[in-house]
Amino acid sequence: MKREIKTTNDGSKTLFINELNENYHSHHGALQEAEHVFIKNGLNQLNDCEINILELGFGTGLNVLVTINEYLKTDKNHVIHYFSLEKYPINESEINDLAYFEHFDNPEFKNIYQKIHQAEWGKSTEIITGFNLKKIECDFFDLKDIDLPKINLVYFDCFGARVQPDLWEKPLFEMVSDKMSVNGLLTTYSSKGSVRRILQELNFKVEKKQGPPGKREMINAVKMEDERNGDD
């Protein structure tokens, strides 16, 4: 798929797929969207000492970078294991042109950004002390066959239902749910009624949250214990 670089309203860049007429991030602000959806309403809602994050999908690597940025702000002695799925990895030229590290004050972020993208696919890599990244090149529907620890936090960041409706239907959400721990949190920029109903059917407690700039609402969903089958 042909992609081009576009600048969003907060000055950060995103990729645009011509044939789908779809951006990787909100044109209102790629960085603002990532921080609002996945940090403010995701990572910052957890207090675990060890956090296992599952991301669908890796895309430009921006969500990894904002997660590391937030991780460095904490003085907690905790560890993050970050697992990210991606079917169509971006290329070196796109990585260099996106240059997300320029939006962070930390002088180490250029090196961190490069390390994220240079990390070998399929292998766990310690990006900084206490933060381990494993990028997995696969179709999202291969998730059921991937061996993961119980996931505490899911960044559900698939392309929109307009262009990839199958990613917002029950089969994929079932696979994701099966990988999650009880009380695990799923956060997504979507607020579709059909998505809320699917998650409720799968025994999630669903809450609508204020959306990022340019979007009225988004979803947080917590996986509840299923008393019928003793799910742990």
TrEMBL record:
Pfam name, any one: Methyltransf_30
InterPro entries per record: MnmC-like_methylTransf, SAM-dependent_MTases_sf, tRNA_MNMC2
Transmembrane segment boundaries: none
MF annotations from Gene Ontology: oxidoreductase activity, acting on the CH-NH group of donors; tRNA (5-methylaminomethyl-2-thiouridylate)(34)-methyltransferase activity
Domain called MnmC-like methyltransferase: residue spans: 142-223
Name the record gives this protein: Peptidase
Organism from which the protein derives: Chryseobacterium luteum
